[in-house]
Amino acid sequence: xxxxxxxxxxxxxxxELCLSEAFGEKxxxxxxELWVRLININYGHNExxxxxxxxxxxxxxxxxxxxxxLRAGKKAKEAAEEAIEVCLGEGVLEDILTASRMExxxxxxxxxxxxxxxENLWQExxxxxxxxxxxxxxxxxxxxxxxxxxxxCRSLNLSYDQTMREIVSLxxxxxxxxxxxxxxxxxxxx
Length: 190
Fold this sequence. Notes:
By secondary structure, the chain is mainly alpha-helical. Helices cover 64% and strands 8% of the residues. The chain has seven helices and three strands; from the N terminus they run βββααααααα. It has a three-stranded mixed beta sheet with strand order 1-3-2, with no helix packed on it. The chain is elongated. The protein starts with a strand and ends in a 5-residue tail after the last helix.
């Protein structure tokens, strides 16, 4: 088994991948193990292989042209169309790009849309996590503040009702929220 890698993260020229490393815990024995050879086919990598397989070099060059357009801030469709034009002008993948231009463009756009969708999902999850963290942090901070305020009110010999009014006013709580805090912290702060 061989994996031809042309992704965006930095990879060695060649390395072995182990299936069990992709799943589960390290050091767990499995009944089946699979080792595959990963070969980096990004433009500028594995020059000896690229010399032996010109078609693979052409593909690598074409993908690099698309990626260069994306790095320059172009939209996926524009970057792909420009890469096709550059390659056609240089005779790279000419037979494929001439005969199947729309199919190639469609596949590229589908691939880049999928990457964008994954990035968007990650971003949304990240934002939800931040928001949840803020809410939990606020609730924890508010709870700690109310607890300390109740303790202070008790040390000043304020009554239950006076303390209740103070925390509702100070923390802008509803009566129900104030009662909940009082139930939780009043006896604890003697």
